[in-house]
Please model this.
Amino acid sequence: MLTATFRSMVAHKLRLLLTTASIALGVALLAGTLILTNTMGIAFDMLFGKIGSGTDTVVRAEAPFTQTEGVGTNRGPIAASVLDQVKKVDGVRAAEGTVQGYALLTDTHGKAITTNGGAPTNGYSMPSDEELRGDVELLSGHAPTNAHEVAIDATSAEDHDIALGSSIKVLFQGPTQEFTVVGTIGYGDGIKDLGGTTSAYFDPATAQKVLGTPGAFDQINVSAADGVSQAELADRISDVIPAGTEAVTGKAVAEENADATKQNFSIVGILFGIFAGIALFVGSFIIWNTFTMTVTQRSREIALLRAIGARRRQVMSSLLLEALGLGLFASAVGFGLGIGVAKGLKWLMDAVGFALPFTSLQIEASQVWISLAVGVGVTVVAALVPARRATKVLPIEALRESTPGAEKSSKLRAVIGLAVIAAGAGALWASLYADGGMKLFGLGLGAAMVGVIIALPVAVRPLAAAIATPLRLRGLPGELAKQNAARNPRRTSATAAALMIGLTLVVSMGVFASSLKASFGDVLSDRVDADLYVVTSSAQAPGYSPSVLAAVKGVDGVDEVSANGWGQARFDGQDSGFSSIDPGNADEVLALNVEKGSLADLGKDDVMVARSAAKEHGWKVGDTVTAEFAESGKHQLHVAAVYEGKGWISDDFVVSRAAQEALAGPQLVSNAFVTIDAGADRAEVQDAIAAALADHPDAKVLDRAGFEKEASGFIDQLLTFMTVMLALAVMIALLGIVNTLALSVFERTRELGLLRAVGMTRSQVRAMVRWESAVISLIGAVSGAALGIGIGLAMSQILKDEGIKSISIPVLQIAVYVAVAAAAGVLAAVGPARSAAKVDVLKAVVTD
Amino acid sequence: MSLTTTLSPQQATFPGTPAPAARAVGVTKQYGAGDATVAALDDVSVDLDRGRFTAIMGPSGSGKSTLLHMLAGLDRPTSGEVYLGDTEITSLRDKRLTMLRRDRIGFIFQSFNLLPTMTAAENIVLPMRIAGRRPDPDWVAAIVQTVGLDGRLGHRPSQLSGGQQQRVAAARALASRPEIVFADEPTGALDSRSGTELLRFLRTAVDELAQTVVMVTHDPTAAAYADRVLFLADGHIVDEMHDPSAEAVLDYMKNLGA
Ligand SMILES: Nc1ncnc2c1ncn2[C@@H]1O[C@H](COP(=O)(O)OP(=O)(O)OP(=O)(O)O)[C@@H](O)[C@H]1O
Ligand SMILES: [Mg+2]
Model:
């Protein structure tokens, strides 16, 4: 039996190739996704684990709550006196206070060294204890020892040709300073940066000055004496440190930090996961089809095997063995390709500007096992049913199966499908009104998709009829194409499903992005009245130093500069983002529409709330709101004003920038709006500001058009990304379409022969297959687009409070997507159409 | 003037005699290559008269189907020429040949004559629909009437009996008013009653509609419906019989050893 299996596999090389390719593709995408997400995860782990690897216990200020956005929770500083207490604890081998903060390196020409994908640019205090440095090691030079020295990560040094001894500027939240580079830093194992971030190291006293608060530390890192465990040490330290501080094991801290960051990127993993899922679905579908074909072609061979005495079980195991071998081989090939896919995806993300923290590709045994198991599993399961049939069905019957009526569209299927869709829609609807609607939304979305996939076969006939109406114009080939597409609804819908899912994702994101863009444009033109705009030099940087504002203000011709910041706190027990503004001039440039109270009263203990929030909580001017900051704990803020909450600034809570500084520590500026003196020339002032910013490479000045483009740039990135994803989905779907058409042509050999005999020309036959393919792809594309528009609208509706005010459907763009899908269908049909046209006319005449 | 031109088949026809509907001139068909070469037809020449019903008989493997395929433009001979009316068809390119089959030839096969997705009515007008031509409704109605398919036109092949399916095929073969209708064992899969109905219909088509019909058959009774029977053996036409009776055909076939 084994040799028979092997021989038949080799005998059908083309079929082998097609099947191998489809499984390999599915596995490659899966493996690529696994490798990429794992690599990203490890990059994050490195970012925190590498620095903390020598630290057994961390002493830090307690945070009243965990911030949900950004990297970890900002905490208040810890007094230097605590260090002395910690040092005395039994079992402490070494303890040092550390400081970490924003530090933007520049190259030797004063140009900011920016990172990809919003990876942080950090400054650290360099521990003097070797062990407390963790994996941080000097690759060249020496550690910084005074206020004029810095050591930087080796990647920054190498990429920007910064030699030891050269002097560079470093930007902080405070004033920019110049340092001599005295060392380059690595992180063990040849790693030269922390997951794509840049790092600057200062001696502890300097770090306190430039990164934090003099006389205080961000945290105290402790190394245990031999034989003292992390947990034990943490316990002992907990007993002596003052209230408001806590001692946590080093391991726990590293995990906390890594998890917080990973969450921000989990969406990328999910997206890739969906596409890997589509690929596997298409892959298994192709396997199913291919085995159906194989089995039909081989029914004689199988009958012969059975006639010469092979039992049904032997025939069955021969087929399954074939599937197993094929699955294993193809999955192995697929895993190999997956490494390339991971690289490609990474490259792609870089290319569209969605750079991810990254390190060398991390390949682990578990990924190999998962990929192989999924690939082989899918292959065997997909082969099981056709194989079972093979042992029962006669060749003639197998051929007859393609006649219509063999598959009735089931009412039950329609009912179940509609019920699931209804449940999904209900959840979507409910999510509009529920708190934490996003989870419910996701659930509803999933349910709606599943429902559509269940019900699609029932809709294939009407859809095909609707889509093919224009095809009627093309005479009989068009008519037959429509009929053929609707002939095997389950197969057609399975073929179209890959395109449908792809388009649903892309179109819904498209609608969402376009609404976002429209809202943004509306707000900008209706609500923002400034002459010039000062923004971060790299779109993804968290902000720029407040010192920029002073420099801009000093420029001739500048009238007002009004800056914004952003933060997170807990108001009245609920986590919420807040904006910070300059109360003196914010209303002039931002049209806040203050309805009650006055902006002039927005002092350090005050807050301005949006109308909707005020209404919800019954707040009036003069009431108090409890606000809790991770950095400084609870505060009672007075409601000084109520505003519309629908313009550029739309957060429920707004405080003055001075208040933010007092409550949450030193802050970066997100952006600033500049008005110019009456009579001043805008272009001249812009040039003057640009000149003044020469010493501030973290910021740049833009005019209105530039600002608009910059601020909506991320939406364009999103769209580019979605387009690339669409291309991916279309490519995967293409394989499925080719396969389905090949199977159909194979099954309909006799019909094609008959048509040719009674006078259908080759080009008409080709057109017929092409049209059929176009109808199948359009079924997928149109239903996907419809679904995507619905979901996009729902998504925009849910995010109404988060700034989506205008809803816009990118009609042209969606039309292009659908056209591309249809064109892909026609392209996919080239091969099958050719083989259909080659069908031997006599096949229909000669009965066997 | 060269010899070939002088002796070209068209001019070889006697004036006054109607030109044959189809003719084979020295047609040879070989299958396989080298030592395994099989000659299914060996230098066969035959004229098929217009407005007549011709049957082709012979033992299994004698080349009947092969000859029919050559005449009908479904396959090309290894050598020799085939004429449909005045058109030499072996040299035609695929597209012209296909259009010729569509417009000038009707077919009835032994089985699988109809497209399963189409109704009987749609199947009947299939060649005209392929051509993008409007069928002549009166003519189609007349044929449907003759073939006895009233009330079945909306059915799909799977809802029709084998005999009904063959009658739909016959109606299709005649609906486009072809110059000639070819049928390869059209009654082979039918019971005798259905077979008789179909044969009567073909006879009527010849007698009343002046059709030309060429039919391969194994059945002497079927052959008896024809005006003329050609006997094939080992790729040669060995004999022919005019206005045959079933008995005479049967006797002859016994002698042939079929
Ligand atoms: N495609 C082919 N390849 C090889 N040999 C063929 C092919 N078609 C026919 N033959 C051979 O040519 C000869 C004539 O075949 P043909 O089908 O014309 O016979 P027939 O008279 O129609 O027989 P039957 O009464 O069984 O239908 C046979 O020996 C057959 O084996
Ligand atoms: Mg035959």
Q: What stands out?
A: Residues 250-297 of chain A form the longest helix (48 residues). Chain A has three domains: 53-264, 460-526+705-848, 532-702.
